[in-house]
Amino acid sequence: MKPLPKRACLALCCLALIAAAKFEAGTVGPVDQAQQHPDFLAFRDSLRAAIQNKNVESLLKHVDTNVQCSHGGEEGIADFREKWKLDQNPGASPLWQELGRILALGGAFQKEQFVAPYVYAKWPESYDSFQFAAITGQNVNVRARAALDAPALKQSTYGIVRIVLDSWEAPPTQTIDGETWPWVKVGLSNGAEGYVWGKYVVSPLGYRAGFNKTNGEWKLIFLVAGD
Q1: Measured between alpha carbons, how far is 226 from 145 in angstroms, rounded to an integer?
Q2: Which residue in 203, 119, 123 sits closest to 164, CA to CA?
Q3: 162: CATH
Q4: Domain check: are 48 and 101 in the same one?
Q5: Strand, coil or helix: what is 162?
Q6: pLDDT tens digits for range 55-109
Q7: Which domain holds residue 173?
Q8: Residues 100 and 146 both lie in one domain
Q9: pTM of the entire structure?
Q10: 57 exposed, middle or buried (CB, 10 Å; 0-12, 13-18, 19+)?
Q11: Which of 10, 14, 51, 66 is buried deepest, with most CB atoms within 10 A?
């Protein structure tokens, strides 16, 4: 049998890569069980007000004294303040945007603990949490380039997407309505690739928050990312 020409080999390799990039389509629909406990709902509303106003002292009233800040042993209010730069230039802290998005996305109760966002709380085990993420909106545009004026390849409603990592490229950011998020390169279930503005792409391994009731009061007990 004659060996295939180089051009044919290259074409077959490209087809194999495209096929390998395909995956079974799926969704993670929004869930918010906060209303099941009216006292927690009131607590969350109060916390969201503190975030909206970027009020550090009000925020910390909602945080447990032993709050877990990472998987590396950081815990307590002092570490929390340092990690999120609440003593240097608190108005510029990324905490307000990150925690604000987490709370806006709702969550679920796991026994007596409330966990948010819903992407983490309800992530389907059939998708590798290191490789996939969720679109957190309806009719979210997947664009051909990392720009708001780029043509939309497709729209996704709460779809699961594959994260495409280009380690040699710094992801471009864009500010829309006062929020700045990076563009995220994603793969769709049909193998196509495009870009989604980062506000609407959430990894189950991204930042998530847990809340527990201690001595009659709800508190933030962890705000961590990673595995």
Answers
A1: 27
A2: 203
A3: 2.30.30.40
A4: yes
A5: strand
A6: 999 999 999 999 999 988 889 999 999 999 999 899 999 999 999 999 999 999 9
A7: 132-202
A8: no
A9: 0.86
A10: exposed
A11: 51
